[in-house]
Amino acid sequence: MGDLGSTHCCDSIAFELIGTDAFHFRDSNSRASLSLKELRLSGENCEFCAGLAKLIDYRSKQPATWADNYRNPQRRDGERAMPMEEEMKDAHVQISVHGIKEARNWSFGFEGTSHRTVLDVWVIIGGPSNFYFEMLLQRAGPGGRVPVTHKSEAEYGQDTITYEAPGGWRVGSVDDDGPRPATQVASLETALGRSRPLEVDYTMLRGWLDLCLSHEDHDLCQQDNGGIHVPGFRLVDVENMCIWDADGHAPPFATLSYVWGAEPFLRLVKDNLETLMTPGSLRNASLPLTISDAIEVCRNLQIRYIWIDSLCIIQDDESDMLATIDRMDSIYRQSVVTIVAAAGVNAHAGIPGVRPGTKTLVQQQLEVRGVPLIDSVDHRQLRSQTSYQEPEWISRTPWAQRAWTFQEALVSRRILFFTAELVYWSCRQGLLSEDTVEYFESPKTRLRLDDKFDPLEYQHIATTFSRRRLTFESDLGRAYLGTQNYLDAKWGGQMFSWGLPHGAFGSFLMWEWDFDPARRQRQGTHPIKEANGTIARVAFPTWSWMGWMEGGQLIHVFGDEPAAHSPLFYTFDRASELVEIQDGQHWRSRPKPIADLLLGECAGSGEVPPSRKTELLEADIPPELSATPFLKHRALIFYSQTAKLRYDSSAGFKATSSLNTPSGLRMTRREYPFPVMIGENFYEILEENQKDETNRENNKESLRDIKLVAVFGGHMTKPRKFRGKFRIYIWPVIETSPGVWVRASYMSTVVFQDLWNILPRKKWELISIV
Questions:
Q1: Which domain holds residue 616?
Q2: Cα atoms found within 13 Å of the Cα of residue 130, Cβ hemisphere only
Q3: Model confidence, pTM
Q4: What's the average model confidence in pLDDT over 349-356?
Q5: Which is nearest to 97 in space by CA: 171, 22, 38?
């Protein structure tokens, strides 16, 4: 900072801008950088600098500062690291007024956001490779000089701001439309910081609920009168402390979303059903802390009933479980509010703030030039991010790592998130928190959460869900079912097959996982209750992203090309009826038949020969598939062109990371050789291996046949020299029984159409992939 004899860091920062709607993105008086030693020295003559230095010291010693901090390293013993006192001496501090911080609710749409101007403080300890932490300070009320004019010297130059004395705050809304005059007094943002209690303030939480219920813009948050249609629907009666049979009658109730964990706890089973339905039985029961705390929250919010999966589903009755899990979306959607225990790693962890001593972080209040400031408990609640993205204030919690909890929040209309140190309210239209005054911003955009099918929304939902973990890998289908049912209803009858939306089926069939050498097919089965009441246990299909063990993130880099071409796909519904997938019906365009691309004039000249048909009849289905329910329910059937090629089974290699996977998988090839993935290994398809006479001469006993199926085609968009050229997505497949195939791996190969056209032994045939 130079000479600190007459200059303090507070002299170089325009604190008056904090909490106002003044624009200042390039203002030269909005930031400072100095060492912690310099800040402490400055504090000898400045109350604010002294207070900020004390706040940094306090926060650096708090476990909450370092918990789940993505900038925080780990010591060799695996324990979370915290800086030593000696390390803090060399800390560096970066201070700036930040005007594009965003508060976003837990949703995957454009609503529920507001922008804040805050003081951003980064503390860097030991250099870029060691420790970091961030703090945000919000304005806590009016005060200080008022920004009056804002002038930019050049289009991308430095900005100039002048001020007037306190008392000149503009009365108005941050939602005012139209250009602002060159000279205009700024207004305070509606949301200001405040001190949050260490124990839950139920009056505040009840006020949030009432605010959402009465807010005129919150039509998306209101009850949809769909009702609860779950046989044997049960609730926990908070007043009588017992399980209550609510079948046919569902009064207002809350729901609980939490992490079960591996430690045992009381659950509803056939043997204790009658006992737990006796009034008072739960008072004497040994309930885990998270469940007893959730009951206490309901009691104080004056909500008499709560639905808790472990106590409301008979855990050793598969019929009861399937009937309820199939309707999980309606249960959480119809609840008044969902209580999310986000901080707990298991059901015994409890809910922070319900009992004394479970929250520890004490906020600090500072003032500079008459501007009152208070530190935000969680700096991640104000974070610039894109739409359709899970906000950081929840994404790093134990709750957000589990697959089962995803659907529970997605379908809920109102949520109380209890993180380690803060309670958030998130509804379909806004976000509130304990350390920020109530504020719901009025919607400014036409895009809403109840809009019709949106591929981008689905993509982010699927990728977020794919990062979450399961204790039992076979639970994936059930954990995603509520999400699928919700999107089906939300998008007006958008059907799904094994997680893939029919509205853009061909495109999203081109899913990819991050490469992982340990990835394998998902084990276990998914139970499907058929129309006649029987339960079919169905393995996960190899053509869906659900069919492969997760790890890393599900990515979508293919399948979005213009001039898309795909086969006419068919699946079976629960009644074992053949269903034609209406690909692209609810999207911007429908793909053209892949036959037009692969067969050219032959496909469009009059009647198509039987060898080149595209429409499927029941009589065309392979007999084994038709007669076997556990195969039928996972089958994807379509006509397409195939090529049978030979590869050298002795020349494969197993990649150890994504860095040494063949580039030809993701880049298009115009000529031989090109790679395919079969099982765990990659193989090069060589032109000489396709010639019978060469193979006889060389007597290659290691040659094997592999069938390649064309599944999708579209125009290339880059590089520019290839723009407009068609590329073909192909799957290697292996026949497991007559007419029934599985994917040979989870990775596609993409080639130019020119290369596909010259491949040998091609034919048009029916493909049934399971």
A1: 455-553+564-769
A2: 14
A3: 0.87
A4: 97
A5: 22
